[in-house]
Design brief:
Blueprint (H helix, E strand, L loop, with lengths): L2 H8 L3 H10 L6 H11 L4 E4 L6 H15 L9 E4 L3 H18 L3 E4 L5 H9 L4 E4 L1 H7 L3 H7 L4 E4 L2 H5 L2 H17 L3 E6 L5 H9 L5 E4 L6 E6 L5 H10 L3 H16 L3 E4 L3 H13 L4 E4 L5 H13 L4 E4 L14 E5 L5 H8 L10 E6 L3 H15 L13 H15 L2 E2 H10 L8 H13 L3 E4 L4 E4 L3 H7 L9 E6 L5 E6 H6 L6 E4 L2 E9 L4 E6 L19 H19 L4 H8 L7 H16 L9 E7 L2 E5 L3 H20 L4 E5 L2 E5 L6 H10 L5 H9 L3 H13 L3 H5 L6 H8 L3 H14 L2 H13 L3 E6 L23 H13 L1 E6 L6 E5 L17 E4 L4 H8 L5 H20 L1 H8 L5 H8 L6 H18 L5
Parallel strand pairs: 1-6, 1-7, 2-4, 2-5, 3-4, 5-6, 8-13, 9-11, 9-12, 10-11, 12-13, 17-21, 22-26
Antiparallel strand pairs: 14-16, 15-16, 17-18, 19-20, 20-21, 22-23, 23-25, 24-25, 27-28, 27-29
Helix pairs in contact: 1-3, 3-4, 4-5, 7-10, 10-18, 10-19, 12-13, 16-17, 17-23, 17-25, 18-20, 18-21, 23-25, 23-26, 24-25, 26-27, 26-28, 26-33, 29-31, 29-32, 34-39, 35-36, 36-37, 36-38, 37-38, 38-39
Keywords: ATP-binding, DNA damage, DNA repair, DNA-binding, Helicase, Hydrolase, Isomerase, Nucleotide-binding
Family: Belongs to the Lhr helicase family. Lhr-Core subfamily.
Protein name: DEAD/DEAH box helicase
């Protein structure tokens, strides 16, 4: 044992040291060696170390020691352990209960699901350590008996503090901790994080700007990541047939399968829930022991799959960020990241789940799908090893959080002077620069909305009749959003769900998006039923998804490094190197195999072979074909989105019509009117004043659905929506007009700029172009790199033939549909039955004719027309169609009945379906589905 080892544990009292011996802890972990000394000295401390390296015990051993040593347990709560997820609460309780029992300290959990009985017990006899969430702390701060218990708090531990620092939940918590300080006096603050950029800033967030010790383990040096894009093999061709997918996708499935088989316990991270489900369905088809875990699953389903993975029943677990935050699923020896993780922080957080026991190296593989993906993953992997982590984007001065906290403070503390409430809120680090004028504007808005009473004469804030209800309805800063079901208009099957944010901001009939690994076109939106009806894209190769899903934004630094890699590779290709040689050279600096890097470099090779300029970190390439203009720019999501809005707004102004806009980290794609020349685009870049970027973007936002949606959420936190909404749903235009020049509007604009845009960088890009530090080169036509963005949304796309489960659904639906059988010979016999009960060759029981028409169950007017002695023109047409129908049934029997029972499929289309030669029944139903979808897409054009 080293001197450092001894020093760490000797800082703890005898009771805790005995517990350590009983538990078998003889040697401290690296975080414990570093952090126990300042923690034992009761200093505010931020501990940064890999997930699973013992951070919880690092924080809690000194806390337990203080609670035992301080003349016995306090009467109230001694320590709070705050976690961002309820699931973490469950894990923390299991980890800490043993220590509590051994040291005679009570450890308990309190969150939204805690029973009323348990809550009552905790209020009467507070546990020594309470594990809770930020929202439950808000509720506790308003209860009289609980507030009394909170007066004894001497320690607060905030787990996954980096996650909270970058959210409005965290901004709310920062004020909550200052409210707690008003009750309990100064207490020790301990933050735990797996990884974070700018630790000092996060330390200030944790402590309200007070002194904070930073104890950090170099996470990057303990990470071993490789980047791989698999080559398509003969096995993948076979596998593609089994999975009804493309060979390229099959190769991804095969590589992930092989990696899982090579390890004992593997987490497979993906970036979206849809991808998790799409990949999961492939593994289910192959009968592999790999489960799926994401936030849309029920709590019971998540716990079940966690337990099965922990017990070894499952070898792999497909998950989204739901498994990032340290939920205990036992030992993980490898992590797979499917597609680029987009950010260094996410890679370290995810890969850190593997091999972290006792300072082991965390091993992981990033499986990539295209050149952008590969270069981005390589840049992120290198930056992770070097510890170049993105800073936490703290929400500075969120006015809706201020609006949320004022009622809570007066509800819990009674009538307060304005300066007292302002002092508490402005002590919280995100609100250190909040001016008293802004604070009073928020207060006046709350008074107008009758959430609190503001007595301007006495300068006091008091509760109103609505305060109590407001506080308990607004414990969380997570906005309530409705969920829309997505249904295939042809098969009536539910595809998935969409958040209200997506439907309000984007969804319009005709727009294209990706869900469940497939591309869909919106046909109809039913707000009353909260349902979106869609039809699939038959040939996705010709479509660009208008919306891919909630993407994790790629930072400018990562996108810039992709540009640098391109620059280095291009210079080698230009002097005679080939993709293989350049790929080999890149492996000396980046953690990828030669084949993967050569594959990515082949895109650059094609770019240069077409005599097209290379987009790099300091060269933008403007290409054009027809109305499609692409500005290749390696500046990341937020800067490109900002630049794109500038171009769209100013070019649209010139043309007098709208300009279509799509952005990704490496491209800004515009659909411009024919009147816009390439020189117009250049002119905007070269002449727009960089100082005017913010004003131009804000002007463009003023009438946007995106701003209106945020405004509706923010104004709900001010209690303003009811006042403006009245009894009906408020239109976006009315909402924007009603709330302009209010604190709600100011906060909504701030939030859009904070979360989606990078005005400062966009301004510096324009400045760089205009000063000559950045080069802009034009090219006529489309380039290999410019078109690279078109495939970004097609992750796991199914081929044109629909997958087996959809075909089964269509077959079952048609077989159970009812039809009318009508004899067109005697015209007397008619029967209504299900398709599945029809004979292979229908025959009239009255006259034994086989000329039987198969009609829709609502086609009584056709029956009337066929039987009529004297017919009008419309009845003549109906009769003729019925005879054609009967002729087809006479020739092809039940097969014709099935085809014509489909939606929008008449005798002509049914004949086309029947006359095709097919290998199996599935192909027959696939053709039917194709015709149904064609009808669904075009039915609005029919009378």
């Amino acid at each position: 044992m080293t001197e450092g080892d001894v020093a760490a544990f000797t800082r703890l009292g005898s009771a805790v040291r005995e517990a350590l011996s009983e538990r078998g802890f003889s040697t401290p972990t690296a975080p414990q060696r570093l952090a126990i000394p300042p923690l034992a000295a009761r200093q505010n401390t931020l501990v940064i170390a890999p997930t699973g390296s013992g951070k919880t015990e690092t924080a809690m051993l000194p806390v337990f020691d203080h609670l035992v040593a301080d003349d016995g347990p306090a009467e109230g709560f001694g320590a709070l352990y705050v976690t961002p997820l309820r699931a973490l609460n469950r894990d923390m309780l299991e980890r800490l209960e043993w220590w509590g029992e051994y040291l005679d300290l009570e450890v308990a959990v309190r969150h939204g699901d805690t029973t009323q009985y348990e809550r009552g017990k905790q209020a009467e006899d507070p546990p020594d350590v309470l594990i809770t969430t930020p929202e439950t702390l808000q509720a506790m701060l308003t209860g009289d008996r609980l507030r009394s218990g909170l007066e004894d708090v001497s320690h607060v531990v905030v787990d996954e503090v980096h996650e909270l620092a970058a959210s409005k939940r965290g901004a709310q918590l920062s004020i909550g901790l200052e409210r707690l300080r008003d009750l309990a006096g100064e207490f020790q603050r301990i933050g735990l994080s797996a990884t974070v950029g700018e630790p000092a800033e996060v330390g200030k967030f944790l402590t309200g700007g007070r002194l904070c010790e930073i104890r950090e383990i170099d996470v990057g040096s303990n990470v071993d990541v490789s980047v791989r894009r698999p080559a398509v093999t003969d096995e993948d061709e076979t596998l593609a047939g089994t999975l009804m997918t493309e060979p390229d996708t099959a190769s991804h499935v095969r590589l992930i399968r092989d990696l899982v088989e090579d390890h004992e316990s593997t987490l497979i991270f993906v970036n979206t829930r849809q991808t998790a489900e799409a990949l999961g369905s492939r593994f289910t088809e192959l009968d592999l022991p790999i489960g799926v875990h994401h936030g849309s699953l029920s709590k019971e389903a998540r716990i079940d799959v966690e337990d099965r993975f922990k017990s070894g029943d499952l070898d792999g677990l497909l998950c989204t960020s739901s498994m990032e935050l340290g939920i205990d699923v036992g030992r993980v020896d490898h992590v797979i990241q499917y597609k680029s993780p987009r950010q260094v922080t996410r890679l370290l957080q995810r890969i850190g789940r593997a091999g972290h026991r006792r300072d082991e190296v965390s091993s992981g593989t990033i499986v990539t799908t295209n050149p952008d993906d590969t270069f981005e993953a390589l840049a992120i992997a290198r930056r992770a090893r070097a510890g170049e982590v993105e800073p936490a984007a703290i929400h500075e001065g969120s006015l809706d959080v201020v609006a949320n906290q004022i009622p809570g403070i007066v509800q819990s503390r009674g009538s307060k002077h304005v300066s007292d409430v302002y002092e508490t809120i402005s002590r919280a680090y995100p609100f250190r620069d909040l001016s008293e004028e802004r604070f009073r504007n928020v207060l006046s808005e709350l008074h107008r909305n009758r959430i609190v009473w503001f007595d301007e004469g006495e300068d006091r804030i008091e509760t109103s009749g609505s305060t109590w209800q407001y506080v308990y309805s607004n414990l969380s800063m997570i906005p309530d959003e409705e969920t829309y079901e997505v249904h295939d208009i042809a098969s009536s099957t539910q595809i998935g769900t969409l958040d209200e944010r997506f439907v309000v901001n984007f969804a319009r009939p005709g727009e294209v998006f990706v869900q469940r690994g497939e591309m869909w076109r919106i046909a109809e939106i039913d707000d009353d039923e909260a349902r979106v009806k869609v039809s699939p894209i038959e040939d996705p190769a010709g479509e660009v998804p208008s919306w891919i899903g909630q993407e994790i934004p790629v930072p400018a630094a990562v996108a810039g490094e992709v540009g640098e890699i391109r620059d280095v590779a291009a210079s080698q290709l230009e002097v005679g190197g080939d993709a293989d040689a350049v790929g080999r050279e890149l492996t000396t600096r980046y953690p990828g195999d030669e084949r993967t890097l050569a594959d990515a470099c082949s895109q650059l090779e094609r770019q240069l072979e077409a005599d097209a300029p290379m987009p790099t970190a300091d060269r933008l390439v403007l290409e054009r074909q027809g109305r499609s203009v692409v500005l290749n720019a390696c500046f990341g999501h937020m800067a490109n989105e900002t630049l794109g809005r500038i171009l769209s707004a100013l070019l649209g102004q010139r043309a007098g019509s709208s300009v279509g806009l799509e952005t990704d980290p490496y491209r800004i794609e515009l659909e411009v009117p024919n009147s816009i020349a390439t020189s117009d685009v250049l002119e905007v870049l070269e002449e727009t004043d960089p100082d005017h970027v913010e004003a131009i973007v804000e002007l463009g936002l003023k009438r946007s659905d995106a701003l209106a949606f945020r405004l509706s959420q923010v104004s709900a936190k001010f209690g303003a929506l009811k006042r403006w909404q009245g009894s009906g749903r408020l239109s976006n235009d009315r909402l924007l007009a009603a709330l302009e020049d209010t604190p709600m509007y100011e906060e909504s604009i701030r939030e859009v700029f904070h979360e989606d845009l990078d005005v400062e960088r966009a301004s510096s890009i324009l400045d760089g172009i205009q000063s000559g530090n950045l080069e802009v080169v034009t090219y006529r036509g489309r380039t290999a790199i410019g078109q690279g963005g078109r495939s970004s949304g097609k992750e796991l796309l199914a081929p044109e033939n629909a997958d087996a489960s959809v075909i089964r659904t269509v077959r079952e639906r048609i077989q159970n549909d009812r039809i009318i059988l009508l004899c067109t010979h005697c015209r007397e016999w008619k029967a209504k039955t299900k398709v599945k009960r029809v004979q292979e060759q229908p025959e009239c029981p009255e006259c034994e004719s086989t000329r039987i028409a198969a009609l829709n169950p609502w086609a009584d007017e056709v029956v009337t027309a066929v039987r009529a002695e004297e017919k009008d023109e419309q009845q003549d047409e109906m009769t003729e169609r019925a005879f054609r129908n009967a002729s087809l049934v006479q020739s092809h029997g039940k097969q014709a009945v099935v085809a014509m029972a489909a939606r929008g499929v008449g005798p002509h289309n049914a004949a086309q379906i029947i006359n095709r030669h097919r290998e199996d029944e599935s192909a027959f139903y696939r053709d039917i589905l194709s015709k149904e979808r064609e009808y669904a897409r075009t039915q609005s054009f029919w009378d």
